[in-house]
Records
---
Amino acid sequence: MMQYIQDGLAERGIAFSTEGNRVRCFPHVVNVGVQTGLKQLTAVKDNAIGAPRPKDEPLPRPGDPVKTARSLVAACRAFGQRREEFRKTIQEGNSAKTFGEQPLPKAELLRDVDTHWSSMFLMIDRFLELCAAIQQFLAKQQTMSDVMPEKHVLDVLKDIRDFLEIPHIVQEVLSAERTPTLCMVLPAYENLMTALENLRSRTPKLHHAISATLLKLRVYYTSARQSDTCIIAMSESRNCHCIGGATDCADLHKHQS
């Protein structure tokens, strides 16, 4: 591909070399940045998920809120009978208005997958959405009645969800384009970093994690700005709307304002 670009530009009298101008995958770069930030999150202290579990119960005491959520999701989805009991818990709670006037969605808990960029965000978002049903479901289980995370753990999970939502939105906007082009990359980096900077100012507890993510993203952003490939793509694509600042996406605008 890069050789094809070099040959095409040479025919137009434009100097270009394949050396040092290969373009990095934007979703991969975002994922690297997010994972860098998540590694900076410290373990939640105190007894976050109750007493130590029996050896036969797949709920090891995790060291951070994400592991807490992941362990509980795995336990609730461990086999068919539990999944059916969880669905029944939602139905009964909605009928009895146990969860309030607004019924919970009849949805499954989601696992995160390393190769799916936004799967951790989707797992945490669904976990928090169905938190009331999870609490009621766990209360019915003899071996899991005391493992529901405490409020401060859930508060941290909400902050992490807000952190992960920003790169998720940016990638969703790019994925919505039928023919994403290279000219969108630099504006996407800029929108992403601006939104993260604003979230960092509002969420002191995640300052170190967001800072680590921003540091990683700026390295790739600087490299992209110096790439002849990106420069040519920006100058040649006159009709490229480049996700037009934050205003093209209301959700991203919420984080940037």
---
Amino acid sequence: MTDISENLRLIKYGCLQTIIGPSLLCDIIVFIYLIRHWRKEIIKSPQNHVILCVLTISFIEKTTDAIFSLYFFRWNIVIQQTDTFCTCWTWLNYSLLTVNLILIAWCCIERHLFIFHSQMMKKKLCLILLHYIPLLICLCYTPIFYIINIFFPIFCINIWDYNYPYCGSPCYAFLPFWGTFDWLVHYAIPILIISFSNLFLFFRVVWQRIKQGRPVEWNRQKRMIIQLAFISSLYLILITPEVIVGVIEALWSPTFALEIQLNYFFYITNFVHQLLPFIIISSLPNMYNELKRFFQRIKRFITRDRSRIHPSTIVNERERNLITCVPTYEKTI
């Protein structure tokens, strides 16, 4: 049994180690693209603000939380065996995942406003009330919640185990009310919002295009719809299994699929942050075209250098042939 668990741990390490490098490279590429097109993609496109926040949080996760996880999967112990580190690591992991999940849930609601009420969202007051304030709340709510319940628990005392990922679970998670509240409000409700908002968006677009004869400006809005569909699918596929099991454990059976949850579902959520930049690149057509042109220029540069080498080789061969032929010609004379 020990060998099986050790092999599973090393497989987890290998998978995460393999993808984290390309994921960081994609993060850098997306950041460079957004900086180069800052006015178009950020200032004039407030619908991209949520995507920028999600990508930034994902980058922070890969440079902090993912590194700590890699160390644990490699050596089977946390990188710093102190209660302070365990508290900070748990807070970081919980905050980064839930902030991104809640941001995507809000993004699904917000896209309805930008697609079907675009003129209203151009007004400064509406943009402040319906965009910037909700965005700020999404960024601040769960980190504050976890600071209170992880750093300063009122009804329990944290007991950390350095031989478990994230040193185990904070003590509030075992309290009936707060554990259930956490799973329902911070995980289950955002997943439901993501699911139903995407379905409602799809049917709303079809309804306006077919029944009412008022088609949405498809060429202008399809990028937002496709981007939202890709990112939402990533979160639904990788997080939904953990949330379903967690809600069942919180409401009915604390030991339901516990081993699967601990060994697999908790681990799978690591790949949400790792795969996110790939999804963002594929959903940005302008960026995809820029990358395509970049690789085409590299290919032309390489082929041009090769074409410069071949003629010189041919000339050298001709000169060598002439030199070898001269003595033969003199002898014949």
